[in-house]
């Protein structure tokens, strides 16, 4: 009699007999078949057998194709050696099961879930003929997907469960094929004909392949699934989505790492479909082959017509017993020993019209506490490499990836001690800086930086050597230092650019602001400086001060200004200088003052100006000097006054001019002197008048006296006229000499000569009426007195 169940493997000889087996398959679960093998006369190295490929065949007879299960041996156990034969138990699993043996922590960036799954499958040794990814939906690239302390199998499983993907296996002639899908349209019929419902008692083989019992279980459902989250890039965006179910109550899921309302809607729909897939579940039992998870079968001949429909197998248990005794079965499988029937299948199915979604059974890892990493970047830059949101690329130390230069991490936010709409606090971190991270909600896909950490390569700026200091230092050596040492407390702010610094507190100066470069102080409104003691300004270059508004300087104590070089002051408008007390102005070198407009100098007290060298004053416009009190000018050297226009001197009181040396007055044009009162001219030496074409005599309103102590000489080249309105007296103390040239004419009302000696030499004197006419060249009068 041929065997119904056979097992072929390089780990066992062809003579190995299958006595019994038990297997379980399910969508999104790897299958396991525990196969009991009887081996006579030969020994098997169970250690070497592990990992070998094998195939379990179920011969359906009557020329039907075999029902096969391919895989590898996950374990091989020698259960008992009876001497005549040995009893072995081998576990057959798909190659994909080997991914459960791994354990990794790593980060995938800028990749979609299908891309991540395929990369891990290839890494796990599955070739392109070993798997197929048949997806209906599109999956975007994700910034950051983290595998943390979990197997590759669990990592793929939880990602697929979240996204609504699931997998099952095809069995070809020589291998199993892993199939990933996300739509019910991918499920095909496997059985060549419908499955017959035949409620026969156990052991009755008259019905052949059939389902003996077919149960239906319906479960209560919630009424709605809501998914909500928060997107820090769009804080005001309401990220939520929902999907309706037929029951009561809400399921609200927060923190699913969704970014938009559309994503929220999508994930809510997936979760709702996951729940709805278990609303109605059918369970069939019977000796029916060719039922596999992920495939559709058609039930017929059920008395309930509604049950005669298409079903998707989601899970199945296989039990086979070819020759095992009850004792061997219990030894091999314990209480779950296979049936005494040759073959029995228990199938769980849902209506084919229901979209299957795998339950989220795979645990999502949590990262509690902090993990460490290092700031990364695309370049070896001395500056922080951050994005428009101030985020960093970080290499997390548990990441096994070998990508470099910022490609191992997505952009990660850094928590700050202060923030707001415009306010904030951020010291950028450079590439290579160690950081510690936490994960929002423990989710490995949601890291944030909590702070920077010091190490031997990036040491602390405060150590045992400067433990009294509080320091903030940037990568370019800008720093703020706050010293707390008693007696030396200070704050020092420093920028290395041209040694610019501000020092406050202990030091040679309690306030010291300095730079080797230029400086600028700007205030939009008032700027007040109070100095309660001495103030010293040391300027080595040019000083330019511009005052757009009024400028007032008040000094309550003596002022000393020393200019060791030229002083040039330009005033475009009116200038008023008031000295309420003594002004002592000393200029030891040349001084030039240019006033292009009116100058008003008012001195209410004594004013002394001393010029020890040349003083040159040029006024191109009108100049008025008003002195409300005494004015005294002392010139110890030469004094020269040049007036190119009209000069008007108005003295409302007495005026005294004292000239210690020669006084030379030259008038190029007419000169007129008007004296409303007496005039007295006293000379100690000769008085000589210049010669001109004509000299007109004096006009005295009342009286004119002229006194000569020794001699008075009048010389007229042509004519001298004396006019007396009432009387003219010429009195010569010693003599009166008239030397006449061509003509001397004296026309008085009356003329008296007393005690006068008149000598006329070569002179003709004529008196015609009231006219005295004298012709000569010279009139000499000694001790002359003229009364008019």
TrEMBL record:
Superkingdom classification of source: Bacteria
Residue ranges of domain Gp5/Type VI secretion system Vgr protein OB-fold in the record: 393-453
Gene3D superfamilies in UniProt: 2.30.110.50, 4.10.220.110, Baseplate protein-like domains (3.55.50.10), Gp5 N-terminal domain (2.40.50.230)
InterPro entries documented for this protein: Gp5/Vgr_OB, T6SS_RhsGE_Vgr_subset, T6SS_Vgr_RhsGE, Vgr_OB-fold_dom_sf
SUPFAM superfamilies linked: gp5 N-terminal domain-like, Phage fibre proteins, Phage tail proteins
Family, per entry: Belongs to the VgrG protein family.
Protein name: Type VI secretion system tip protein VgrG
Lineage, uppermost ranks: Bacteria, Pseudomonadati, Myxococcota, Polyangia, Polyangiales
């Amino acid at each position: 009699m041929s065997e119904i169940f056979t097992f072929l493997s390089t780990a066992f000889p062809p003579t190995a007999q299958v006595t019994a087996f038990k297997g379980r398959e399910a969508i999104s679960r790897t299958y396991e078949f525990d196969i009991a093998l009887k081996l006579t006369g030969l020994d098997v190295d169970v250690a070497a057998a592990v990992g070998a490929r094998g195939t379990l065949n179920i011969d359906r007879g009557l020329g039907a194709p075999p029902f096969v299960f391919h895989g590898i041996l996950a374990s091989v156990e020698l259960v008992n050696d009876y001497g005549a034969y040995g009893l072995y138990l081998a576990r057959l699993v798909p190659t994909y099961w080997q991914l459960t043996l791994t354990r990794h922590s790593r980060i995938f960036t800028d990749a979609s879930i299908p891309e991540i799954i395929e990369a891990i499958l290839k890494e796990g040794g599955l070739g392109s003929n070993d798997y197929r990814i048949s997806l209906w939906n599109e999956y975007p690239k994700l910034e950051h997907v983290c595998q943390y302390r979990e197997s590759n199998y669990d990592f793929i499983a939880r990602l697929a469960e979240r996204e609504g993907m699931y997998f099952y296996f095809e069995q070809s002639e020589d291998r199993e094929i892993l199939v990933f899908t996300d739509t019910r349209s991918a499920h095909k019929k496997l059985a060549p004909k419908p499955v017959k419902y035949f409620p026969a008692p156990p052991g009755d083989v008259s019905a052949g392949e059939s389902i003996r019992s077919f149960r239906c279980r319906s479960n209560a459902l919630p009424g709605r699934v809501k998914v909500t989250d928060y997107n820090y890039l769009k804080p005001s965006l309401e990220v939520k989505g929902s999907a309706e179910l037929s029951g009561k109550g809400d399921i609200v899921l927060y923190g699913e790492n969704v970014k938009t309302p559309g994503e929220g809607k999508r994930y809510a729909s997936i979760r709702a479909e996951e729940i709805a897939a278990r609303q109605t579940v059918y369970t069939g039992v019977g000796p029916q082959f060719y039922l596999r998870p992920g495939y559709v079968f058609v039930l017929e001949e059920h008395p309930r017509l509604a049950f005669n429909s298409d079903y998707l197998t989601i899970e199945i248990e296989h039990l086979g017993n070819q020759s095992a005794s009850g004792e061997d079965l219990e030894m091999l499988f314990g209480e779950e020993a296979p049936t005494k029937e040759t073959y029995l299948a228990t199938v769980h199915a849902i209506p084919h019209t229901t979209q299957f979604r795998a339950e989220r059974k795979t645990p999502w890892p949590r990262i509690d506490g902090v993990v460490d990493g290092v700031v990364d970047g695309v370049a070896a830059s001395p500056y922080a490499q951050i994005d428009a949101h101030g985020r960093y690329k970080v290499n997390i130390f548990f990441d096994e990836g070998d990508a470099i230069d910022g490609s191992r991490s997505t952009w990660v936010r850094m928590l700050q001690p202060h923030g707001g709409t415009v306010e904030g606090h951020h010291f950028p971190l450079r590439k290579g800086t160690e950081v510690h991270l936490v994960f929002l909600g423990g989710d490995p896909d949601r890291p944030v930086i909590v702070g920077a950490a010091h190490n031997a390569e990036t040491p602390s700026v405060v150590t045992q050597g400067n433990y009294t200091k509080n320091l903030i230092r940037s990568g370019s050596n800008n720093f703020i230092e706050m010293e707390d040492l008693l007696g030396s407390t200070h704050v020092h702010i420093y920028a290395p650019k041209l040694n610019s610094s501000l020092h406050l507190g202990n030091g040679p100066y309690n306030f010291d602001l300095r730079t080797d470069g230029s400086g600028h102080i700007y205030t939009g409104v008032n700027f007040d400086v109070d100095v309660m003691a001495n103030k010293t300004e040391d300027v080595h270059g040019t000083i330019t001060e511009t005052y757009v508004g009024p400028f007032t300087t008040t000094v309550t104590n003596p002022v000393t200004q020393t200019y060791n070089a030229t002083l040039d002051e330009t005033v475009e408008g009116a200038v008023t200088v008031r000295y309420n007390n003594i002004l002592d102005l000393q200029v030891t070198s040349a001084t030039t003052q240019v006033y292009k407009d009116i100058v008003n100098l008012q001195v209410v007290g004594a004013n002394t100006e001393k010029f020890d060298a040349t003083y040159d004053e040029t006024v191109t416009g009108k100049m008025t000097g008003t002195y409300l009190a005494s004015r005294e000018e002392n010139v110890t050297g030469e004094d020269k006054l040049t007036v190119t226009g009209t000069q008007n001197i108005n003295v409302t009181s007495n005026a005294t001019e004292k000239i210690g040396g020669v006084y030379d007055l030259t008038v190029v044009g007419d000169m007129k002197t008007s004296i409303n009162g007496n005039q007295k001219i006293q000379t100690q030496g000769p008085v000589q008048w210049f010669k001109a074409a004509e000299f007109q005599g004096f006009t005295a309103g009342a009286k004119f006296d002229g006194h000569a102590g020794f001699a008075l000489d009048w010389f007229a080249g042509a004519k001298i006229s004396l006019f007396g309105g009432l009387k003219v007296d010429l009195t010569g103390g010693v003599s009166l000499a008239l030397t006449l040239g061509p003509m001397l004419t004296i026309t008085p009302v009356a003329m008296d000569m007393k005690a006068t000696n008149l000598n006329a030499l070569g002179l003709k004197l004529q008196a015609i009426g009231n006219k005295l006419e004298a012709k000569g060249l010279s009139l000499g009068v000694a001790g002359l007195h003229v009364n008019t």
